[in-house]
Structures are given as C-alpha cells and as structure tokens.
Design goal:
CATH superfamily of the largest domain: Fumarylacetoacetase-like, C-terminal domain
CATH class of the largest domain: Alpha Beta
Shape: globular
CATH architecture of the largest domain: Alpha-Beta Complex
Largest sheet: 8 strands, mixed
Radius of gyration: 22 Å
Length: 440
C-alpha cells in the first residue's frame, strides 16, 4: 500500500482558484491523468492532468524548463497520445511526476513558475478526450456478492451464487474495439433471444437493455509470461482507476450465456470516464478488506496481511439517468442508485493476482472491469435489472417517466468520488453514454 505523504495534505491549496472550490472533483490532492485535445481542432491528442476546471497540458509542460530528472522523463511519456509508455515506467516515475506537478501547482510556487504554468493550462470546457491508452486486453470481473445474489434471486427467491464465486474472482475477456470514452453514443444491439415457453429463438433488437456500474482498473507495469504476480505486489502493477459502464443486453445474454458466457450481450459498447485517478491519490481512502467468518476464506495465494489491512477502497458511486424527454424539457437527470466500492467481495489486488496465477502476462494499458458494484442496502443496485427486479417494479424518474429497462435516447451517467474527515474530496469526473435506436 502507498504511504500517505505531503500530496495528501488536506490543507494544501493551489494558486488556481478553481482547484480550491468546495465539492470539486479535481483539487491539488487528486491530479488524475487523461488524453485530450482542444475540441474542434485537428491538433494531436496528448496527455494531461486535471486541476480545478483546467487541464495541465503535459506536452507544453515538458517543453518548459520546469521539470528535471525522472519527473521530466515521466512527463514526456505521459504527454504522448497514449499513456502506455508512461504506465510501463512504474511507480517511481508515476510518483516523481505527481510530486513535481503538486509542487508547481501549490499556492507557494514562485511567481515565475505560476506564470509559466498558466501558459500550459487549457479549460476543460474546451477539450475533447479519447481512450487514454492502447488497450491490448480487457477483462471484466464479477466480484460483487450483493449483485450476484440479487441476480440469482430474480430467478429463484432462495437462489445463491454459483459455488465458485466465493473462491475465485470470476471474469471473462471482453471486447476492446467498442470501448469508448465518456460521451459515447451507441446503437441498441441486435441479437437472438428465446421467449419463455418458445422452442426456437427469434432475432430482433434488444428489449432489455441495461447498464452496469463498474470501475475500470488500469494496469501499469506488466509481468513476464509465466511469472505470476504475488498478491503482496499486485498493486505495484496498478496505475489507477476510472469509471466504467459495462452495457448489457439482458435478454440476449440470458439466451447465449451457456456454455461459454457473455458474447453479443456485452461486446457492443463499454463506456469509460476519461480521467484516471492514481492509486497514490486514493491512498487516504483505503479500508480493511474483510470476509465474514461464516464465509469461505481465500486460498493462500489470495491471502495477504496487507490486503486485509487496506485492500478495500471507499469510492462513493452514483448512477443517474437522463431520458430524451427530460433533456428536451430541461428536467435534468434522475439519480437511480448510490453505493460504494468498499462492499466488493474481492479486492483489486486479488483480481490482479488471480488473473496472473496461471502464467498470464499483463501489459501496460490492459484494462479490468471491476464487475457490477452493488451494495447490501436498498437503492444500492448497480444495474437496472436489480433495481427494478427485471422490470417487475419500474423506477419513477423525477419528472414522472418510468423505467424497467433502458429506452432509446436514455443517457446513463456514472459519477464517483472519495471523501473522508481530515482529507480532501477527490472525484473521478463522469462517464456518460447514450442509447441510440437499433440499426436493422
């Protein structure tokens, strides 16, 4: 686990006033990474760091005499159109750049430094983002026991999770080509479904479209093929975390799941937030990872005192829905649910350790989905199929519309943040995706 240091000091302030605004996502204690360019321009995409309502252009920063040594090397790598080379540098370089940028942005920075750095800022309102790294592989996990139980009990009130759920962090390999950044718009998928009592399936547009509230876990430094990553070292290989929406076509999924798992029901769209919050920024919000005594305890390779001490992360999460009708009427989005990542049955370190235990090689820029994040209480469901009990109990939006599943024109917004007494609030920005009508 990363030790707390001066970059976590809640009293630290920036000379940029917007970074000090109460309730903002991007104070000086955060400093997340993204890849951006000015909207409407043909200029190259390049890496940036969020501060207040601005983006610190790392290409512009690296061209000025404000950094040196490892921090300069890291800035040059983080300024590229994809962050893979920066990820590959590892924790010392990530920290060197964070600490150097923190110093440049503090309110006690020299006046000449402030003036030079102002020339490197671009308003976030004027930029567009792209997927921040070349994603070689995408693995989507299934690690919330509350979500798994809710889904099982939709089919059988006395249902339970599959026997392996309590022993391994279950996952499947997803599709990289349809991962898009916030603002993604996609068409309702087509596929086969089998109606209750029918003997043959039919082909049509998905009628039970769903979202899944997840986090995206970005792999930094990889491992060699055949060299498993021990649990105690797993977080050394994680650069940071973003928001992730794993859109799901439930009717298609239920027909095609057996025997090999998700396929067309999951490969049409995945929406991530542009900003990656580093593991160092998340250090103050760590919690003990626990497993109830009555539950099976992990096998030895998934057990470690450090993971027990601080393997959980208290990331607060919300799902909002903005219908086309609400958008046209100026009603705004309606909040559907709210929960925290701290409830997850398996930790991010356990996901990494299990993924590599058989010899699998991870590479910089690989992406994990955490699996749907649902909490134990009412209103903590991370998918609409849980929230509405498969449309048996539709939710009512703030302006009166009702939803059992998603309709065309619906935009789903994921939001996340961390807060704790004695520490600054830091946020993840937003993941927004919009459903368009099916083609065909």
């Amino acid at each position: 686990m990363i030790a707390l240091n001066h970059t976590h000091d809640a009293s630290a302030r920036s000379w940029l006033a917007s970074a000090n605004a109460a309730g903002g996502d991007f104070p000086i204690q955060n400093l997340p990474h993204a890849v951006f360019r000015r909207a409407g321009h043909s200029e190259p995409f390049r890496g940036g760091i969020a501060i207040g309502d601005q983006v610190l252009d790392l290409a512009a920063l690296a061209a000025r005499p404000l950094l040196e040594g490892l921090a300069l090397d890291a800035a040059r790598a983080a300024a590229l159109p994809a962050l893979n080379d920066f990820f590959a540098l590892g924790g010392r370089a990530w920290q060197a750049l964070r600490h150097a940028v923190f110093a440049l942005l503090r309110d006690d920075a020299p006046a000449a430094t402030v003036e030079a750095l102002r020339q490197c800022l671009v308003p976030q309102a004027e930029v567009e983002y792209t997927v921040p790294a070349r994603i070689g592989d995408y693995t989507d996990f299934y690690t919330s026991i509350d979500h798994a139980l809710n889904i099982s009990r939709l089919m059988n009130p006395d249902g339970d999770v599959t026997p392996n759920f309590r022993w391994i962090p279950t996952a499947y390999h997803g599709r990289v080509s349809t991962i898009g950044v916030s603002g993604q718009r996609f068409h309702r998928p087509m596929g086969q479904t089998l109606a209750p009592g029918a003997k043959a399936p039919t082909f049509h547009a998905c009628a039970r479209l769903d979202y899944e509230l997840e986090l995206g876990i970005w792999i930094g430094a990889g491992n060699a093929a055949g060299a498993p990553i021990p649990l105690a070292q797993a977080e050394d290989h994680i650069f940071g975390i973003c928001l992730l929406n794993d859109w799901s076509a439930r009717d298609i999924q239920f027909w095609e799941m057996a025997p090999l798992g998700p396929f067309l029901a999951k490969n049409f769209a995945t929406t991530i937030s542009p900003w990656i919050v580093t593991m160092e920024a998340l250090a103050p919000y760590r919690l003990p990872w626990t497993r109830p005594a009555a539950e099976p305890q992990p096998l030895a390779y998934l057990e470690d005192p450090g993971n027990r001490e601080g393997g959980a992360i208290d990331i607060r999460l919300e799902v909002w829905l903005e219908s086309e009708q609400a958008r046209r009427g100026g009603h705004g989005a309606s909040r559907l649910s709210r929960t925290s990542f701290r409830h997850q049955y398996w930790s991010v370190a356990q996901m990494v350790a299990h993924h590599t235990v058989g010899g699998c090689q991870l590479n910089p820029g690989d992406l994990f989905g955490s699996g749907t994040i649902s909490g134990p209480g009412p209103g903590e469901a991370g998918a609409i199929i849980e929230l509405t009990r498969a449309a048996q109990s539709p939710v009512t939006l703030s302006h009166g519309e009702r939803r059992g599943f998603l309709e065309d024109g619906d935009a789903v917004l994921l939001r996340g943040w961390c807060e704790k007494p004695g520490h600054a609030r830091i946020g993840f920005g937003e993941s927004r995706g919009t459903v368009l009508p099916a083609i065909g």
